[in-house]
Amino acid sequence: MKFLDSEQQHIFVETNKIRLHCVSQGEGELVLLLHGFPEFWYSWRHQIPALARHFKVVVPDLRGYNDSDKPASGYDLDTLSADIRGLIDRLGYTKAHIVGHDWGGVIAWHLAQKFPEKLNRLAILNAPHPQRFVQEMASNLDQLRRSWYVFAFQVPGIPEWLIQQNLKDFVQNVFQGQAIRKGSFSAEETKIYQTALEKPGVLGAAVNYYRQIFHPQRLWNLGQKWETVNVPTLVLWGEEDAFLSQKLVEGLDRLITAPFKLKLVPNCGHWIQQEVPQTVNRELLSFLR
């Protein structure tokens, strides 16, 4: 892969009965960077070298994405979190700093609630707290309007088929079309995302994340327990996110019982670590160090 830095390594790690492909660079305390939909490790390309000067940075392709295994099941939050908990163990660490964007951030929130002993610090980039997201979906028309695709994704088989038919346009629209800073995605970069999504099984797996979280039983479970987060937490939020209402960051301080910082980034959309990489790198380094 021509876009891999010479100091970065590809590794495969067995965890929770699957094999995750990861990119690794640096030494020191472990930092895991978790990507979102419809990305893969490459969405952290601006952060890996900056963080690797101080940490061991490991960036997995999440279950179902790019070069990681694509099993038929396991796209619920408990299993996805167990994938990451196992990854920390298999890398030889007892805990890690977890940084998550979009779906990776949802997993990171869940991980902090379920396995706080595995986290040093938690950094969330434009990713809703799972219970807050379900609450907003139920009560906020603006969020419902932004999340129309979540409902479209519930139909079996059709969404991934439709995306497959129009993959180039889909990728162009999702990234460049929804970014506030359009220059963040060159034609070459969108092509790299397209190539990763063309791999057999990826689209079905990616859409399964949405099917699982809105499964009636899981929705009920999410609505029942509002577990607080008790690890130091940083939330970075691009203010002009087309997919997520800014209301999702309101009241987060009530859900976090540890030091908490929220930074809103103006003139920035959903793809925050790619739209304002310098800002994100600076904030992450100052928080994690």
Layout: helices, strands, pairs:
Layout: E1 9-15, E2 18-25, E3 30-34, H1 48-52, E4 56-60, H2 77-90, E5 96-101, H3 103-114, E6 119-125, H4 130-139, H5 141-146, H6 148-152, H7 158-165, H8 167-177, H9 187-197, H10 202-213, H11 216-224, E7 233-238, E8 260-265, H12 272-275, H13 277-288
Global structural class = alpha/beta
Number of helices: 13
Order of helices and strands: EEEHEHEHEHHHHHHHHEEHH
- As residue ranges, the low-confidence spans are none
Give the strand tally: 8
* Biggest sheet, spatial arrangement of strands: 1-2-4-3-5-6-7-8
Question: Quick one: biggest sheet?
Answer: 8 strands, mixed
Query: What is the CA-atom radius of gyration, in angstroms?
Result: 17 Å
The proportion of residues forming helix, as a percent range, comes to 40-55%
Mean pLDDT: 94
Overall geometric form: globular
Amino-to-carboxy terminus distance: 31 Å
SS strand fraction: 15-25%
Explain what this protein looks like in three dimensions:
The chain has 289 residues and is α/β, with parallel strands linked by helices. 41% of the residues lie in helices and 17% in strands. The chain contains 13 helices and 8 strands. It has helices spanning 48-52, 77-90, 103-114, 130-139, 141-146, 148-152, 158-165, 167-177, 187-197, 202-213, 216-224, 272-275, 277-288, and strands at 9-15, 18-25, 30-34, 56-60, 96-101, 119-125, 233-238, 260-265. It has an 8-stranded mixed beta sheet, sandwiched between helices. Helix 1 links the parallel strand 3 (30-34) and strand 4. The mean pLDDT is 94.
